[in-house]
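Please decode residue identities from the backbone states below.
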């Protein structure tokens, strides 16, 4: 068999266009040639070497095994079929390895400044209400068996149902896994706790080790320093949902924590001085209400003074109530 015709048959064999007679001729020729070197119709040396090694190893094993059997006409055709199946499997494997490497989808990262909120619509139909001073990174298209994003800050999530593709929110070393549900997450680097409040559906929360399954109207409070998890009832579901629309309610919250929350959500500079920082307060800020008026009201209730100085609001007092 001359070299040109040899290449012609090999190419047709690998492309799957060879006739039965051409396949028989090629396999018989190979048996006669043994391991002598010959040219393969590949575009690169690496591709040729990989194909030769894999095809020849598999083909020789099948042919040697067939030759040990009774040399009947039926066994001869079995040898041809076995060799052909090996070549076909190897070719499919080469094609898969070259063309099925997972491609990491492009991702977007959205940030919000203090006093700013954004609504993000994901490609799967899920919606994220991103709170002030927060960030979320998500793929432009979800691929694979899960829908995964990374998040820091505060946000309300309304996740589209898809039982075959769980939605996972990564918050540092912890993650929240859902199928389709609504919930709020507060996870700031400066805070010692991560809080996941579930409104509808079910979620599982894990810190990489142990995990908890959360039911509606409950929240999980995770202490990042102690690595402890507590499940508590949500005092007010309406208040949890209201935060995405600018409704902020505080039920027995420390004044220093309220000041930080108001500062972030309204882009204000607030400083708390004195024992008043550890005083508990109950109150709310409605959409459109002046945050300054709210601070004045809080200062009055906790027996503190509110002082304005160079765009800085100072809450000062002993906190005796």
């Amino acid at each position: 068999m001359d070299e040109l015709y040899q290449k012609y048959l090999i190419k047709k064999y690998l492309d799957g266009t060879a006739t039965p007679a051409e396949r028989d001729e090629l396999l018989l020729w190979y048996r006669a040639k043994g391991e002598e070197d010959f040219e393969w119709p590949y575009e690169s040396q690496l591709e040729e070497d990989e194909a030769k090694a894999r095809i020849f190893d598999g083909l020789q094993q099948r042919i040697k095994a067939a030759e040990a059997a009774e040399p009947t006409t039926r066994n001869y055709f079995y040898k041809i079929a076995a060799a052909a199946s090996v070549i076909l499997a190897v070719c499919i494997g080469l094609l898969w390895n070259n063309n099925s490497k997972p491609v990491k989808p492009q991702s977007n990262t959205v940030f919000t400044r203090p006093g700013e909120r954004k609504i993000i619509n994901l490609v799967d139909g899920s919606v994220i209400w991103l709170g002030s001073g927060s960030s979320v990174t998500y793929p432009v298209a979800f691929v694979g068996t899960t829908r995964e994003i990374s998040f820091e800050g505060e946000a309300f999530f309304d996740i589209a149902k898809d039982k075959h593709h769980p939605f996972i929110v990564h918050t540092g070393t912890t993650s929240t896994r859902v199928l389709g549900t609504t919930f709020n997450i507060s996870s700031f680097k400066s805070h010692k706790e991560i809080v996941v409040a579930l409104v509808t559906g079910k979620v599982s929360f894990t810190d990489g080790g142990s995990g908890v399954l959360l039911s509606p109207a409950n929240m999980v409070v995770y202490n990042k320093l102690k690595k402890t998890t507590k499940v508590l009832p949500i005092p007010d579901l309406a208040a949890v949902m209201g935060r995405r629309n600018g409704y902020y309610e505080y039920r027995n919250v420390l004044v220093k924590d309220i000041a930080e929350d108001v500062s972030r959500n309204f882009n204000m500079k607030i400083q708390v001085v004195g024992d008043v920082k550890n005083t508990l307060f109950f109150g709310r800020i409605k959409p459109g209400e002046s945050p300054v008026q709210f601070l004045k009201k809080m200062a009055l209730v906790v027996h503190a003074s509110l002082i304005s100085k160079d765009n800085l609001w100072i809450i000062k007092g002993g906190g005796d109530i």
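Observation: Confidence is low (pLDDT under 50) at residues 39-43.
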